[in-house]
UniProtKB/TrEMBL annotation:
<feature type="domain" description="Solute-binding protein family 3/N-terminal">
    <location>
        <begin position="26"/>
        <end position="241"/>
    </location>
</feature>
<keyword id="KW-0732">Signal</keyword>
<protein>
    <submittedName>
        <fullName>ABC transporter substrate-binding protein</fullName>
    </submittedName>
</protein>
<dbReference type="InterPro" id="IPR001638">
    <property type="entry name" value="Solute-binding_3/MltF_N"/>
</dbReference>
<dbReference type="Pfam" id="PF00497">
    <property type="entry name" value="SBP_bac_3"/>
</dbReference>
Length: 241
């Protein structure tokens, strides 16, 4: 099936969830699936971004429609055609993305972390452990750069984070690269270690497609940050940090 048709079908079945308030105006939020930002818990949508955008809707007195989307929609030629107001889901505000998308102000600080099995004692020497990396992701580029620099790196490549987690659990690999918030979530869920030094730090925000809402969204985010709501949502998934 052509990619465009596949996307259309996914939008139809990918689930429209309406936050149950009877407000007059709708806020259409596309959520990119990925724990712990947005994911299915049994038949219920859950996650950090889901909870954040529910309370933003309440703050704005708007009825929130959630559309579950694949990460591939985060494309400058495709995203503006979806008819959404925002797209969220742990989106790193990279310099490249900021050149082509308008973002809300950041509301989560994250980065790239190394997750280690709980039974592995590691002093930070990258030649002493076996890494798992996701094909095409930043972690793969990092280990390839290490190899090019002359380091003797052992690593295996996988197609999904779920595969990587499984291989950590069955002790086929020792460590892997994850978004920092995701790493803290996995640490809480599986007991993994999160290495103290991040590869890099970066902000997370939502892509604004309806520019007329930009100021209202940022005002709502600022208020929710000032009263500690966003921090409490984060803590409910990853604990104190």
């Amino acid at each position: 099936m052509p990619a465009r048709n596949l996307l259309f079908v996914s939008l139809l079945i990918a689930t429209l969830l309406i936050f149950p308030y009877t407000f007059g105006q709708f806020l259409k939020v596309g959520l990119l699936l990925g724990e712990p930002y947005a994911y299915w818990s049994s038949t219920k949508l859950s996650g950090i971004e889901y909870d954040i955008w529910r309370v933003i809707g309440v703050e704005l007195n708007m009825n929130v429609e959630f559309y579950v989307l694949p990460f591939s929609v985060l494309d400058v030629s495709l995203a503006p055609k979806l008819g959404l107001d925002v797209i969220a889901g742990g989106i790193h505000m990279t310099d490249e993305r900021k050149k082509v998308f308008k973002f809300t102000q950041p509301y989560i600080n994250s980065g790239l972390a190394i997750v280690i099995r709980k039974d592995v004692k590691w002093d930070g020497d990258i030649e002493k452990i076996t890494f798992g990396v996701k094909k095409g992701a930043t972690g793969e580029k990092i280990v390839q750069d290490w190899v090019k620099s002359g380091k003797k790196i052992k690593y295996s490549t996988f197609v999904s984070n779920e595969e990587i987690v499984t291989n950590l659990l069955i002790k086929k690999i020792d460590g892997a690269f994850f978004d920092y918030i995701n790493a803290l979530y996995l640490s809480k869920k599986y007991g993994f270690q999160v290495h103290k030094d991040l590869i890099y730090s970066i902000n997370i925000g939502a892509v604004v497609l309806n520019i007329s809402l930009e100021k209202k969204l940022n005002d709502a985010i600022s208020k929710l940050e000032s009263v500690g709501t966003i921090k409490r949502i984060l803590a409910s998934y990853i604990g104190a940090f």
